């Protein structure tokens, strides 16, 4: 009896040790890729006039751990990955020149983003509709990565399940299948490629388009869009990347902020070590209804004037904002941890070093995998207001200080 009891005890201890070893192994793997700072390159910024043009050769690969090429597309007939701007991507060797960044920055990782706002959702919805189409797409991605030497794919489907953008009720499941099958193909290739997914912070979009826990398990990283949460289309002045709720955030705007958006993914079962927070290098601008109505929440009557770099109403890069701030009144939204500026006609909600530090501190405290910034060509890249890339350098400093942090996170699952 004593021998039998001892055997049972020994077996129990052995099983416990095996379970603990497996758990520790899983936790170590969870954070094995470390913290990251992902920069975005937009190919259309090359079309700006004169020295405002932003080229691949301008990319400061020493400031980022990863750089993303925006964008490639889904071919509407073959369902394969294809160039979005073939006259640049292929004819001017955009893909090849981007890949050549590794010659200058050998530790830099390069990703291709597929989709984006202008791409729409219908091509994604049609491509993911059947397993055969997804298989064809995934095979073309593998071929693309081999050919150009990129290190992975970021899927920017805006947004699954959105009927107004060509979506269907099956998108939620099909999107997960796409990411899972892409991940399996990348694993089989044995090249260390990553598949990441850019996702919203808006609860209503998550409910119709995203299987949070399953998607997080399938993807290497989840890139949460922490900006464009407000804009001139809402008809009231506000910062577009608030960190937390304010008293005036009611109805659909209650909870529509960076902290809550990330927490939706965390509480849905996504480990912090897979979440990358997106921050903007741009501001959203408004035309004020009256000169006196300049506080957060004041009525507006449309988009602010287009800038000479970005040329889009309601939207200014920091490269444009920093030059006009000296002529405007500057204020700080304490709850949102964001700056804003106004004159008698226009109002701007934007990011500066202080607001970025607040988001960075929160990301570090919550052990997130890192930050991504959209985009390099919107920062003050020519140094018109001081040293080039002021906002990018704020994030780069955090990355250098925290990149060796252990990102292991305990899970109750």
Give the SSE layout:
Layout: H1 2-30, E1 36-42, E2 66-74, E3 81-83, H2 86-89, H3 94-99, H4 101-104, E4 109-115, H5 122-127, H6 131-148, E5 152-156, H7 171-189, E6 194-199, H8 203-209, H9 212-218, E7 221-225, H10 258-267, E8 275-280, E9 282-288, E10 300-303, E11 315-317, H11 318-324, E12 329-333, E13 338-342, E14 346-349, H12 353-365, E15 370-374, H13 390-402
Parallel strand pairs: 1-2, 1-15, 2-4, 4-5, 5-6, 6-7, 7-8, 8-15
Antiparallel strand pairs: 2-3, 9-10, 9-11, 9-14, 12-13, 13-14
Helix content: 25-40%
Count of individual helical segments: 13
The rough form would be described as globular
Strand order of the largest sheet: 1-2-4-5-6-7-8-15
Low-confidence stretches: 1-32, 409-413
Structure summary, number of beta strands: 15
Mean pLDDT: 92
Sheet with most strands: 8 strands, parallel, barrel
Radius of gyration: 23 Å
Q: Termini, distance in Å?
A: 38 Å
* Helix and strand composition category: alpha/beta
N to C succession of SSEs: HEEEHHHEHHEHEHHEHEEEEHEEEHEH
The fraction of residues assigned to DSSP E strands is 15-25%
Structure description:
A hairpin with a 6-residue loop joins strand 2 and strand 3. The strands form 2 sheets. An 8-stranded parallel barrel has the order 1-2-4-5-6-7-8-15, surrounded by 5 helices. The longest helix is centred in the N-terminal third of the chain and has 29 residues, at 2-30. It has helices at 2-30, 86-89, 94-99, 101-104, 122-127, 131-148, 171-189, 203-209, 212-218, 258-267, 318-324, 353-365, 390-402; strands spanning 36-42, 66-74, 81-83, 109-115, 152-156, 194-199, 221-225, 275-280, 282-288, 300-303, 315-317, 329-333, 338-342, 346-349, 370-374. The chain has 413 residues and is an alpha/beta fold. This is GH18 domain-containing protein.
